[in-house]
Each structure stands twice: as C-alpha cells, then as structure tokens.
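We emphasize that the prediction below concerns an isolated chain of 287 residues; any contacts that depend on oligomerization or on bound cofactors are therefore not represented. The input was used exactly as deposited, without trimming of termini.
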Amino acid sequence: MKKTVFSISILLSVFSNLFCFDWPFQKVEASQITSFFGQKNGSLPSTSLIISDAEDVISSDEGNTLIVIEDSNDDTDFFPSALGTSVIVSHNDNLICVYSNLDRDSIRSRDYTKKLTKAEPIAKTGKSGFQKKDGSLSFQLIDIKERKSINPLTILPQLPNLPPLSISAVQIRNKNGVAYDLQYAKNFNAGTYRIYFKRNDLVVPFKTSILLNGELSDEISLNSINQEGGTCNVMGIKNYSGTEIYPDDKFMLIGEAALKSGKFTLSLLFTDIKGDTRQLNYNITVY
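Result of the prediction step, given as a token string:
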C-alpha cells in the first residue's frame, strides 16, 4: 500500500482547512493535559488525550449522538473497557469523537436523532474509567472509514506553554537486542539497528526522524495511529506496532537505520506539535 508522509506544516494546514473542532471544555490550560496522544498506555501507544481538572464536557463540533456506552466489557484498541461511561458523537467526514470517563447520570441526551450544536453540554466527568485523577476526560478523535485515531492536537486550537520534550539516554540496539549508548559508542558492525531514547512520562514527540549523512533513513509520525489486524500501528515510513514503539517501560523507538560500511553523521530529529525540531548528531564508523 502506498503511503505518503506529509510535512507537519502541510498536515496542520490540511486539518485546519477541513475541520473546526474546539476543545471539549469551555477553557483548557496546557497544565490540564495529563497524558498525550501516543503516550505509553499499558503496552500500547494511547489513542486518547487525557484532560484533567474539568467538569462540564461540551461537544467539540456539531454532530449527532451515535452511541452511549455505560459499561463496556469489550476491550479493543480503540475502545478499551478502561474508558468507562462514554458518549460517542458522529461528525461529517467519517469522524467520531469519543468522550469517556463520564458520570453516567449527568449525560444530557440519548436522543440519536437530535443534532448537537457546537459547545452543547454533553455530560460531566466522573469516575467510571481508570484515570490517574478524578474529573479527567479521555478524548478521542477517530476516522472510522480509515480505521485510525487522529492526534487531537493536530485539529484543536493550539495551547500555549505545552510541556517540553526531554531527550536523554539515547541508545542503539542491534538485531540481537544488544544496546550501546550513542554518547560513547562510535564504531559498529554493518547491519540494521533500532534507535531509542528514554521515554517521557507525559509528552511524546510529534515526529521522529533518522538521517544518515543528511539522507532520510526512517521517520515515525504520531499524527495518527492505524488499526490493522487487531493491533494499533504507528504511521511513518514503516508501520510499527505499539510494542515496537514501546519495547519496555523505559524506552521509546526513534526509528531504524540500516548501517553499511563507511563513516556517517547519524542525525536524530525530534519535532514537536508546533513544528519546532531538536537535532542530535553523532559521528560513527561502520565496518
């Protein structure tokens, strides 16, 4: 299947032209986000944005109530049972919003024929899901036709003062899983390697890229997460499964590099939602 990787500027331009979604609360501060899209959730990248310290949930855009889930025993990648009481609202362009961890008794309407207006009250946050803090909302945006979750930060109004990404403990691993600290290791045998950095507890990069002597080797984008074969896959040059992105509790995958004999500048790029990029360079020799 042919895949096209958009630059962040083009991607955000497309989303801003097509969609007019707003935050599911009247007012949201960056400090209220307790988990970002793509953050490790169990063994998989989360398909939700978790917003805390808020009560009255409103519709992010006009649409129709599609379904109300009061007690989900089905555990899938898009709708895990940990979401608790949820309201799913359908919108144009095959999009649905999922509002979860709600107070069941506060749901305003179960009328599936009634059109919801933008900013119309939906319910109050509750304790029906398994969130870190009471009064937290799990918010998802899903393209049901493409079977993928979309990173809400790509289509919601940008928030100032989003927390920065910390980059440390960068390591490279060979096919046998042997790891080398790139701060010290400079000589490698030819082969295919995967490169990781220490996972942040809160934020994740919007995109990671690996370049060898300035040429793109691999790229991972967290603008969306695909569901294929019953698992969630992160998009990019390759589709990586959730367990490949997070092989353990400590590290997150940056990408993969096929190293051939020669001298290289290995460049690692970390791009945030605003398009700002931090670059690390390593001079290595491959035998």
